[in-house]
């Protein structure tokens, strides 16, 4: 058989050269369009559900969050496996489907069940959310933000720069699903209540939270005609950032005692923390 092939090639050299030339030309146009990866993606069809629960221990996360979500995910069709991990302040659940299931259909099924799972989780404990549609090979690049020595730029400022500037510049790039932030300190405006002062003014933590929510927002009005124009009337009440924002938080009124307003700064220390 092999000898016949050699004899045919020798007898039809011109035909063989033309065939080789044709294959080379076709390969030049076809190979760049082939859907091939340097590292084949062997990740199965899976959907992740993550829940942040600050302040809860791993056992509490397992009982209050992980178990209720797992119990409703097992009933989904074509589910092969449901695995989870419960850490301090974090619950991670992975729902694995059969290979024949479309990933977007699987995410739709999980999303529908997730609404039922939320009713089983105590209010205020945590809100489960689906993770991005990415595979095990989805993490393609890591970068690091560094400050010049002696510049005085803190890790909190670097984290804010990444979350509100760098991240927003990278997200529109084609092919990027999500930009994750690790490290640094997340900037917070903290209100540290003084229990003794709250009792002296007959206030509760709920009173303070309600006052802060009511005093941080804009109010829409109506239109006021002025000649051929119409002026939009609205009240602006968003709290500003930085030190000015701290002062505004301290001045939020909580109640009135004998005609004098009791402000938040009188019952709590307001500061920027992480």
Can you offer a commentary on this structure?
The chain has helices at about 1-10, 15-30, 60-75, 105-120, 155-170, 195-200, 205-215, 240-250, and strands spanning about 45-50, 80-85, 90-95, 130, 190-195, 220-225, 230-235, 255, 260-265, 270-274. The protein folds into 4 domains: about 1-35; about 45-130, Multidrug efflux transporter AcrB pore domain (Alpha-Beta Plaits), CATH 3.30.70.1430; about 140-185, no CATH class; about 190-274, Multidrug efflux transporter AcrB TolC docking domain, DN and DC subdomains. The protein is elongated, with a radius of gyration of 30 Å. The protein contains 8 helices and 10 strands. The protein is of the alpha+beta class and about 270 residues long. The protein starts with a helix and ends with a strand.
Number of helices: 8
Global Rg: 30 Å
Q: What's the overall average pLDDT, rounded?
A: 84
Report the sheet-strand fraction: 15-25%
Largest sheet: 4 strands, antiparallel
- The count of β-strands is 10
The coarse silhouette is elongated
Structural class: alpha+beta
């Amino acid at each position: 058989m092999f000898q016949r092939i050699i004899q045919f090639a020798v007898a039809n050299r011109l035909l063989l050269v033309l065939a080789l030339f044709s294959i080379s030309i076709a390969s030049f146009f076809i190979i760049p369009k082939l859907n091939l990866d340097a590292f084949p993606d062997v990740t199965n069809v899976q959907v992740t559900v993550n829940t942040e629960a600050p302040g809860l221990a791993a056992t509490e996360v397992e009982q209050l969050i992980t178990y209720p979500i797992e119990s409703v995910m097992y009933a989904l069709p074509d589910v092969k496996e449901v695995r989870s991990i419960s850490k301090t302040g974090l619950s991670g659940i992975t729902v694995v489907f059969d290979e024949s299931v479309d990933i977007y259909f699987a995410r739709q099924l999980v999303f529908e069940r997730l609404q039922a799972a939320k009713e089983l989780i105590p209010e205020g404990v945590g809100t489960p959310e689906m993770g991005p549609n990415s595979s095990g090979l989805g993490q393609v690049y890591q970068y690091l933000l560094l400050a010049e020595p002696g510049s005085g730029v803190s890790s909190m400022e670097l984290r804010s720069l990444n979350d509100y500037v760098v991240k927003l510049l990278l997200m529109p790039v084609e092919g990027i699903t999500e930009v994750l932030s690790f490290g640094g300190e997340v900037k917070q405006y903290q209100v540290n209540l003084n229990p003794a002062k709250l009792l002296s003014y007959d206030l509760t933590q709920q009173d303070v939270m309600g006052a802060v929510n009511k005093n941080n927002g804009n109010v829409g009005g109506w239109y006021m005609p002025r000649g051929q124009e119409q002026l939009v009337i609205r009240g602006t009440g968003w709290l500003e950032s930085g030190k000015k924002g701290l002062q505004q938080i301290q001045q939020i009124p909580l109640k009135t005692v004998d005609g004098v307003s009791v402000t938040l700064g009188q019952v709590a220390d307001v500061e920027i923390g992480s």
